[in-house]
Amino acid sequence: MSWCSAVVFSAVLAVSWGAEDLSFPPGFKFGAATAAYQVEGAWNASDKGESIWDRFVHEDPGRIFNQNNGDIACDSYNQVEKDIEIAAELGLHYYRFSLAWSRILPTGFPNQISKEGADYYNRLIDGLLAKGIEPFITLYHWDLPQPLQDLGGWANPLIADWFEDYARVVYTLYGDRVKLWVTLNEPVVTCDLCYIMGIFAPGIVSPDVGTYLCNKHAMLAHAKAWRVYDEEFKPKYHGRVSIANHLLWFEPLTEADTELADLARQHLAGRYCHPIYSKEGGWPASIEKLLEKNSRDRGYNRSILPTFTQEEKELVRGTYDFFAFNHYTSRKIRWAKEGETFSQWPLGDAEELNGKIEIPEHWTPAAASWFFVNPDGIRQQLLWLKEQYGDFEFMITENGMATFGGLEDHDRINFYREYLKQILIAIKEDGLNITHYTAWTLLDNFEWSDGYNVKFGFYEVDFEDPLRTRRPRLSAHWYKKVIQEHSLDVTNDEL
Ligand SMILES: *[C@@H]1O[C@H](CO)[C@@H](O)[C@H](O)[C@H]1NC(C)=O
Ligand SMILES: *[C@@H]1O[C@H](CO)[C@@H](O)[C@H](O)[C@H]1NC(C)=O
Ligand SMILES: *[C@@H]1O[C@H](CO)[C@@H](O)[C@H](O)[C@H]1NC(C)=O
């Protein structure tokens, strides 16, 4: 990588916002994230059980770009020291990673705890702490143990109890050293991408029923895992637990689409936030009404959105210690015209809402098909959350940009700078309490359906090389500098 290219990004910054104060508040923390299946590899090491992603990629390799899979991925299972080393090189305050449920509990149940599996995460946690990096754990990032899938997975209400049992094992193993937790990562992806489109494991298409069953059970599972911590572990360990929802920002295409845009926000964000963060709990009223009507129109005799009992509403309501969310991109939405056909959500349309997605020309596309750059979206998203649910401590648990590779990733630096600038505005002008920013991702990894084709990493990984050599991109040097200076005002001569 060439240091000369560093001149470019600071020059651009000076032109666009030079006079402003670009420093972050004291105590603001920067991190980076990964997920187990995307980096670990070692899918069959020691007594690890099979996960739904192992099954999904092996059963039909054609499901993934270039028939890629996560069998080896970044080989992080065998090269954990290298990940810790680059996290330290960046100067991260914390590292957010997920645990492979089937690595710790090979059967999915707590009847068998894998010593080698549990030790892997001990090595990671202890190695991070030795470098002064706080471990931030995600309990579930999409890799359900296959034996639980065989019993219905997220469509079975008992998943909430199974997840609670798993969570208790994990808090017992690591709670003494880990103080920040997320239960589920982006359940909207687990439920909608799996059941509407079948493009993610377990690849079951059941857009009416499966999607909403999964939605409800994810809420119950999160709540039970939160309450286990709150009751059994928080008194001695004083850690904090929440959920990381995926929020896409929706804007109306024209004024006539304002109500639709709100419906789209409720459908995507509200279904996963309202039960937890709203004062009254349960589903958003507008979604309950819409899905009742859609259910009748499609000949169902009860709503496809399963109701919460009063007891379940109370179980889920208030189960957070902070408000975490992942954010990447935005959409414009308009009402569909008579007879217009739909492509599938979330890459295309919002058929459930009778909405069509439009992307304005000035939102630059990124390497992934679903991805367009709209920095203002993250601030608007934050303001909407405050307006809907009230004031919270907010943590951005993922944000980052896809490219097709290359070490001189000016476009990624631009992306981070522009999105972080909006976060600064939200803190300084809107008065929001945003305390953590998590870049996705530490290093290139297995990007689900896109395989290794799409790159999100600060570090490039050579997937042809058995050593999976990691090399810093320009953006790695930039992020390191931002963390060091605690400011977006980073100058070239120091780089
Ligand atoms: C693990 O899977 C790999 C393929 O990724 C295979 O070559 C190897 O034999 C398997 N190891 C065991 C112990 O089954
Ligand atoms: C639908 O449910 C109602 C009661 O909610 C019942 O009266 C009706 O017979 C049911 N229809 C069918 C086809 O099962
Ligand atoms: C932000 O939230 C944290 C955690 O609740 C709290 O300690 C801090 O005082 C808050 N900061 C502001 C500026 O409200």
TrEMBL record:
Keyword terms: Glycoprotein, Glycosidase, Hydrolase, Signal
GO biological process: carbohydrate metabolic process
Keyword set includes rRNA-binding: no
Origin: domain of life: Eukaryota
GO molecular function, one term: beta-glucosidase activity
Annotated InterPro entries: GH, GH_1_N_CS, Glyco_hydro_1
Keyword Signal: yes
Signal peptide positions (record): 1-18
Pfam families according to UniProt: Glyco_hydro_1 (PF00232)
Quaternary data: Homodimer.
Membership in a protein family: Belongs to the glycosyl hydrolase 1 family.
Protein name: Myrosinase 1-like
Organism: Trichoplusia ni
